[in-house]
Give the backbone structure.
Amino acid sequence: MADSLSYGNVDFNSIIGACKTESSATETGESPSDTDGDSVFDVSAEAGETAIADRGHDGFWHRFTRYFSCHSLRYFAGLICAALCFLVLLLPSPYVIETPGPTQDVLGKADGKEVIAITGVTTHKSRGKLLLLTVNAQGVPGSSALGIQTLIAWLDPHEQVMPSEAVFPVGQSSQEYKKTATKEMTGSQDSATTAALAFAQKHKIAGAKTAKVEMHVDDIGGPSAGMVYTLGVIDKLTPADETGGKTIAGTGTIDGKGKVGKIGGIQLKMLAAKRDGATYFLAPAGNCDEVVGHVPNGLRDVKVSTLDEAYRALVAIGQGKADNLPHCTAN
């Protein structure tokens, strides 16, 4: 093995030796400069070492290599750690970031189509709105959340950060994720239609047996809109304007028997409801622990556990008689 260490025209042995010479001179109080004051140091050519040029004429590469050769790795530990931390912030994180998503009035239209289209029976219009609520998710299959985005979301009270495995199965592809979300939404719409028509028949609403229901909402997945879909169908079948011209939001799954179920992201959905003008929020009883203490100012929460309770609450709100409706309470 050669005794000298060099790269191109740069002799690292001479640089390291010069660093030691300069360090020794500094400790003894001597100047590391030549007597004429023009050059930093000079190494004997007889020893096979390269003379370091005048400080003012050193090339960048010489200064760069000299600086790093004169310090141990420990000296750069802080810089290395900072660089690694910065790199981590630019890499995808194993978390999902959730934010308040868009809302949709199920009594209105989306992309030119009625969100709830009913044929075979006379339907009725409403002056108010029934808002379906959503949550935007970043970091699910098909999208990524960078480390720096995750850090910012952690610091934002209007965003939530969850481990990815709590949102979707490990290894799930984007196609599988979309298929699951679409299947859940389709199932939710089917359950809503079943529950709404059963409710209409129970209360002898005209046309309940002949009505055919179709729902049109694109780019929204999951089962959490079931209750609002159900209320929307009933509102269209009845001549009364249950909303009373108000903007009412709600969330919760629904089954064929009219039971309202717990959903995810309810705190973000309340923020979306408030943002888009809702003054009342129908919340599943199963989510009340998450609702208490997080209701935005100007939004009135109403606890519901069945379709009958949700419909009575809707009517009371429309009639301006909501004062006695139950709030969510923590268990």
About this structure: The chain is about 35% helix and 20% strand. The chain has two domains: 6-71, 99-136+172-318. Residues 99-136+172-318 form a domain with the Ribosomal Protein S5; domain 2 fold (CATH 3.30.230.10).
